[in-house]
Design brief:
Elements: E1 6-12, E2 18-24, H1 28-36, E3 50-52
Antiparallel strand pairs: 1-2, 1-3
Bound molecules: zinc ion.
Length: 61
């Protein structure tokens, strides 16, 4: 992992599990593809139940 990469935390709305889904910056089409094929490692929920989590300190959402 290069120093300029930042982890993007994603969360599962089905079970509440959060994990690092991918690292940014990443090619946007590749990032979208990664999100679409992502499954929750905790409960196996499909990408439709996975949301990108807000940055730390930005809990307004
Ligand atoms: Zn889950």
């Amino acid at each position: 992992m290069t120093p300029d990469k930042r982890p993007l935390t994603v969360g599962c709305v089905a079970c509440g599990h959060e994990w690092t889904g991918l690292y940014l910056p990443m090619n946007i089409s590749l990032a979208a593809r990664a999100m679409q094929t992502m499954h929750c490692p905790m409960c196996g929920a499909s990408s439709s139940d996975i949301r990108i989590r807000a940055e730390k300190g930005d809990d307004a959402a």
